[in-house]
Amino acid sequence: MASVLEGELEQAEVSVLHQANASLGEGPIWDPRLEALYWVDIHRCRIHRYRANAARQDGVWITSNSPGCLGLTESTDVVVVASGAEVLLLDLRSGVETPVATLPIAMPLMRANDGRVDPAGRLWVGTMIDDIHAPANFTDGRLFSVLPDGHVSDSGFVFELPNGIDWSPDGRTLYLNDSTALKTFAFDFSVEDGTIRRQRVLFDHPAAEGLPDGLCVDSSGNIWSGQWNGWNIKKIAPDGRLLETHAVPVQRPSSVCFFGRNLDRLAFTSAANGLGTADFIAAPDAGSLFELPVRAGGRREHYFGNRATLNPSTASN
């Protein structure tokens, strides 16, 4: 693989892991216990599982509403899902959904979007105007945290279209992409009480290079961002410098995560919604799950509810 100068566009040797033809593939996460990648197809109300050790898909679950994101729990048989306005536990053996909480949003106008479990076991979920309404502008996006006992806290910040979320390796900085605002934000984060403050712009994205969508943070603290409509994935340093831009063979790379036994492989989802014949001629694998070869390593996902002592008195209000 050729070396990459700072900010230079690299033509990556991308491979298809699974040709899924997803409408809106998003939210990949890696479960090392099963050597499996989970990801969602929001528009089709599906959760997919890809087994890396077998190089094949081995499960699909249909949710009762549009799943914006999911997270792992301490059980390999259960995942937490933000679906529509609901946060629920999905039993992967039976498909039974157990409600945890309801987000205080206006359905059906709004829905849950991207999210992730924090180092203390809270699920953080961004909400947005559902894109099926094709709004002229995205507004009133919120960011909530949810405890296993159903307590929901509003971060107090408002966004246009909140998307990818992850934390610095020390857990003290939260990063979030606001897609239509073309910004990656950084916040001071308190692991102890789940509050965020001191919002600042880490990176302004040029519109011609795509909207920042899903993201993840590697073991060195760098942010990897899928660029919707940009045909690329960016690597951004924690000080806001653009380190690398990787060209990919699809218009809408939507989210990224590290996977593999050594967490040294980068997977990304993609979307095919709204594409026409000419678009598929240019990118026949749109909607697939891909691997991008990179020189970086990832970190394990946190488990929902992994601090049994966490309660509303120690959470943000």
Describe what you observe in this structure.
- 2% of the residues lie in helices and 49% in strands.
- The protein has 317 residues and is mainly beta.
- The chain has one domain: 6 Propeller (Neuraminidase), CATH 2.120.10.
- The chain is globular, with a radius of gyration of 18 Å.
- The N and C termini lie far apart (48 Å).
- The model is unreliable at 1-5 and 308-317 (pLDDT under 50).
Topology of helices and strands:
Layout: E1 9-11, E2 15-18, E3 25-31, E4 36-41, E5 46-51, E6 56-62, E7 67-72, E8 78-83, E9 86-91, E10 97-102, E11 110-117, E12 123-129, E13 141-146, E14 152-159, E15 162-167, E16 173-178, E17 183-189, E18 196-204, E19 211-217, E20 223-228, E21 232-236, E22 242-247, E23 253-259, E24 265-270, H1 277-282, E25 289-292
Parallel strand pairs: 1-22
Antiparallel strand pairs: 2-25, 3-4, 4-5, 5-6, 7-8, 8-9, 9-10, 11-12, 12-13, 13-14, 15-16, 16-17, 17-18, 19-20, 20-21, 21-22, 23-24, 24-25
Summarize this entry quickly.
By secondary structure, this protein is mostly beta strands. The protein has one helix at residues 277-282, and strands at residues 9-11, 15-18, 25-31, 36-41, 46-51, 56-62, 67-72, 78-83, 86-91, 97-102, 110-117, 123-129, 141-146, 152-159, 162-167, 173-178, 183-189, 196-204, 211-217, 223-228, 232-236, 242-247, 253-259, 265-270, 289-292.
